[in-house]
Amino acid sequence: MRLVAIRHLPTDWNKKGLLQGRRDIPISLYEITNYKAKIFENKKQLKQAEPFDLILTSSLIRTQQTAEQYGYQATTIEPLLDELDFGIYEGRPKSEMINETPEWVEDPLQLSLGEKLVDFEGRIITFLQKYSRYDSILLFGHGSWIRAVKSIEKVGNINLMNRILMENNQLEILADLTEAIR
């Protein structure tokens, strides 16, 4: 299974450095013009990666709006793609959470925010198993989720996720996730 993942376009909260998590924050429409060139560049990569068996978004509006900016109107909403629940840290600066939870970088599987990170990892594995019969999936997702999948691809678990950078509107091709679901 190959996943082509695009992190959602920025929201006002992204620009302020606030954690969104499960909050349903829309993309910043006035920011889209700043991302037109990157969207165009990503679309060229998407053309080369086609065809896709499925095009998925999370249940949060920012991923659906990003898919629309790419010209995908008919996507399938998949709640397993939803962002990590940051609990009490949602709406607060990411720097506060990092300062108060040193495990965030070194050993995130030990953390319990609004969602236990071990459960978050389980949700991602469930996603990979559910969609394992497909050859190629395009998904519009969230930073923590995509970083976690990259970590799973690399080391078999999510412990490296917070050492990976994932910008808004960044495209990642995760080539072979068959090992991750065994």
TrEMBL record:
InterPro entries xrefs: His_Pase_superF_clade-1, His_PPase_superfam
Pfam entry (one): His_Phos_1
Highest rank taxon of the organism: Bacteria
Name this polypeptide is given: Phosphoglycerate mutase family protein
Phylogenetic classification of the source organism: Bacteria, Bacillati, Bacillota, Bacilli, Bacillales
